[in-house]
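During the reporting period the student researcher (J.K.) took over the structure-prediction task from the postdoctoral fellow and processed the backlog of single-chain submissions. One of the processed entries is reproduced below for the supervisory committee.
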Amino acid sequence: MIGTIANIQDDAYEGKDFKKVTLGDGKVLNVKYGKGGSLKAKWGELVEGQTYEWVMGEYNGKPFVRDFIFVGKGLAPTPKLAEAPDKMTPDMWADKDKVTRLSIERQTSVKCACEIASDDATIEQILETAEKIAGWIANGVVIPTETPKPAQKATTGAKAQVTTKDVDVELAESEIVADKADIKVNMDWLIDVIKTTKWDIVAWVKDNCKVETKGGINQIVARLDNDQKKLLIKHGQELENLK
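J.K. obtained the following structure tokens:
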């Protein structure tokens, strides 16, 4: 091997002197007596800053200097640094685009959730809404564009009488509306599942819903009640996960 001497130190082991040589790359060599004192006779040739070819041997599994040959002053080759790739591969770009897309989807979902949240909504409620929106974006499902009707204000004059029962009824009705909206969105998404999985929806409806299966897909689905539609959607999601 070729190496330039950076430092030379006198050292000894068990009463025997030797030269401790440190090369420019940090490797340390012990130049001892050599056979018949051949190396000791050449110690004077070792000079810091000069380059040598180091002839190595091995004894009991450990390397040792067998000989050294002067090459020149400061001629050791400089180790090459690993070159960075000059361009990204298609897979690297795909991974980068995926991370960027997910980041944009999450930011957009949180922004939308904050805009539609009520003033007293908790962080947990906002994040739950954001998660649903992110799911819609990821699956390519179109979000219904129906604008909710503004809440009617209480008339002036006599105080409006609101009971707990009235509030319960109002909440129940809003849950039904939201439930129907979710069903509508998921049914739109389900059409794509039917096309991509070659699912025989007519046979499935006949076996599981016991309703008339004449007509096209839209006509068959229209005959299902909400519970049957939910069951249909759930089965479609299971098929989608198997793809």
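The committee noted the following: The CA atoms of residues 8 and 49 lie 10 Å apart.
J.K. will present the remaining backlog at the next meeting.
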